[in-house]
């Protein structure tokens, strides 16, 4: 039997209310020891889910007054008896309430332990738990929508349907093997092949949603680059919504790589080499005038090579120089990664029609392009749409459709698809269906791992270790 755990479930700091959660077989008993209802009736004697007012105590000493709610198993988040105690939100008083719970028989919960117990009790699947983790860490509205969709079970349902279809085919195959004289199989060999092809197609369709899920959840390594004084810092400030970068008329003002959190066009833009969803704005690309500028330019070139999206800013008010042509050649020859060419300073030129002829010609070398003024904001909506089209499948709704959110789910689907292809090839060659059944069982196992069935403890530990202690 699991022991009883306790933790503070609200952020540390001063606030109106703090919540201490207690869960486990002795949760009600611990609650009775630390909470004294004003009506003199023990907390465990009250109806479940009833908010009870009283004193929070440690031995005979009163720590605070507050509310307590008892949730009986299995009708709680963890599936266990749970008590939630709400007190005033001071750092010291909250710690004192937790200390009282620990002294009364609970132990300090580990990171993510409440959610792990919910997973173990079958209250949510592993993919739903991952979505809950994303919800807690969300920095953008798009991440919130994606997390809510995953928590609703969209991925679990899609994977479950694939598992049911594979199980049906396996049942037909094994019925033929076990009872060869009874003619129990409902599908012909050709129909089995078509069923397997259909399963593969739908599994590949589900896996393809990862490009959208990754763009939202994990972010796209992104760089803003261009020649000095092309308007990169102004664009960077427009994207971040604040004056993060210094903007002056002097060339070379930005000498290093800037990073900031950005959600743009539904896509999370993050810095190259980082794990936080951020955007990198680089120093202008030219021959450095001093050592500091040369170091900044070197870092900028490194970030460009590492990026998956480059926002290439071309100054529409003046002719390109040799450095800008060289950078354009390098970007055009990139092996992988996307480039969005931005013809800047449309407020000065009136747009591409009034821009410098050579700058426009350089800009038109790139199929993904937009003209804008970062100073006025005109054209930013067009840039947002362009970035969104590059990485987001517009036919998907993150809140209602199944969208693969992380590399673990993507890898499991890839493993399943590989096994399904093996089965398909085995059947097409004309081998016995029972040989294909071995591959289909492997595919079934891989699909089930998306929701945690058959996943090793190390993987599960890694997922829940990323949660906060109170969740």
Folded structure, characterized:
With 471 residues, the protein is of the alpha/beta class. It folds into 3 domains: 5-109, Gyrase A, domain 2, CATH 3.30.1360.120; 148-209 and 402-464, tRNA modification GTPase MnmE domain 2 (Four Helix Bundle (Hemerythrin (Met), subunit A)), CATH 1.20.120; 219-390, Rossmann fold, CATH 3.40.50.300. The chain has 17 helices and 15 strands. It has helices at residues 27-34, 91-103, 113-120, 126-137, 141-151, 154-178, 189-208, 210-217, 232-240, 291-306, 322-332, 346-349, 357-363, 380-391, 407-429, 433-450, 457-464, and strands spanning 5-8, 15-23, 35-37, 52-58, 61-71, 82-89, 107-108, 220-226, 258-260, 262-264, 267-270, 279-281, 309-315, 338-344, 369-371. Strands 8, 9, 10, 11, 12, 13, 14 and 15 form an 8-stranded mixed beta sheet that branches. Strands 3-4-5-6-2-1-7 form a 7-stranded mixed beta sheet. Helix 4 runs antiparallel to helix 5 and helix 15 packs antiparallel against helix 16. The chain is flat. The two termini are 20 Å apart.
CATH class of the largest domain: Alpha Beta
Give the tally of β-strands. Answer: 15
Low-confidence stretches: 245-258, 273-279, 282-286
Mean pLDDT: 86
Number of domains: 3
Instruction: Note the gap between the termini.
Output: 20 Å
Largest sheet: 8 strands, mixed
Radius of gyration: 29 Å
Oligomer: single chain
State which percent range the strand residues make up: 15-25%
Which homologous superfamily in CATH is the superfamily of the largest domain? P-loop containing nucleotide triphosphate hydrolases
Question: Might you state the CATH topology name of the largest domain?
Answer: Rossmann fold
Q: What is the count of helical runs?
A: 17
Global geometry: flat
CATH architecture of the largest domain, by name, is 3-Layer(aba) Sandwich
Structural class: alpha/beta
Helix content: 40-55%
């Amino acid at each position: 039997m699991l022991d009883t755990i306790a933790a503070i479930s609200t952020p540390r700091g001063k606030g109106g209310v703090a919540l201490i959660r207690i869960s486990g077989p002795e949760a009600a008993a611990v609650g009775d020891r630390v909470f004294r209802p004003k009506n003199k009736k023990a907390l465990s004697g009250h109806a479940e889910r009833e908010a009870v007012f009283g004193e929070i105590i440690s031995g005979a000493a009163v720590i605070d007054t507050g509310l307590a709610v008892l949730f009986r198993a299995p009708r709680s988040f963890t599936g266990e008896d749970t008590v939630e105690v709400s007190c005033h939100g001071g750092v010291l008083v909250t710690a004192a309430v937790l200390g009282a719970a620990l002294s009364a028989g609970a132990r300090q919960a580990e990171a993510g332990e409440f959610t792990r117990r919910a997973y173990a009790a079958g209250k949510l699947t592993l993919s739903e738990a991952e979505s809950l983790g994303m919800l807690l860490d969300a920095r953008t509205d798009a991440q919130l929508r994606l997390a809510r969709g995953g928590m609703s079970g969209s991925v679990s349902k899609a994977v479950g349907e694939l598992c049911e279809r594979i199980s049906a085919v396996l049942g037909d195959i094994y019925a033929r093997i076990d009872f060869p004289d009874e003619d129990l199989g409902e599908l012909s060999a050709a129909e089995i092949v078509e069923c397997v092809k259909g399963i593969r197609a739908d599994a590949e369709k589900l896996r393809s949603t990862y490009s959208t899920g990754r763009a939202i959840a994990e972010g796209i390594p992104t760089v803003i680059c261009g020649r000095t004084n092309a308007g990169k810092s102004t664009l960077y400030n427009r994207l971040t919504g604040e004056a993060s970068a210094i903007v002056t008329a002097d060339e070379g003002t930005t000498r290093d790589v800037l990073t900031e959190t950005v959600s743009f066009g539904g896509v999370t833009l993050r810095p190259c080499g980082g794990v936080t969803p951020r955007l990198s704005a680089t120093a202008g690309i030219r021959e450095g005038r001093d050592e500091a500028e040369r170091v900044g330019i070197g870092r900028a070139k490194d970030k460009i090579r590492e990026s998956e999206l480059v926002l290439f800013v071309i100054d529409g008010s003046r002719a390109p120089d040799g450095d800008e042509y060289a950078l354009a050649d390098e970007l055009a020859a990139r092996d992988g990664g996307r480039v969005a060419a931005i013809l800047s300073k449309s407020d000065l030129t009136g747009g591409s029609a009034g821009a410098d002829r050579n700058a426009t010609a350089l800009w038109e070398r790139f199929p993904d392009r937009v003209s804008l003024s970062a100073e006025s904001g005109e054209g930013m909506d067009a840039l947002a749409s362009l970035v969104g089209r590059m990485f987001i499948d517009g036919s998907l709704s993150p809140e209602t459709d199944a969208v693969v959110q992380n590399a673990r789910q993507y890898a499991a689907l890839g493993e399943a698809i590989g096994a399904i292809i093996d089965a398909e090839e085995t059947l097409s060659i004309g081998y016995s269906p029972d040989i294909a059944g071995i591959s289909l069982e492997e595919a079934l196992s891989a699909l089930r791992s998306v929701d945690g069935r058959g996943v090793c403890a190390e993987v599960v530990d890694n997922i829940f270790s990323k949660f906060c202690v109170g969740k």
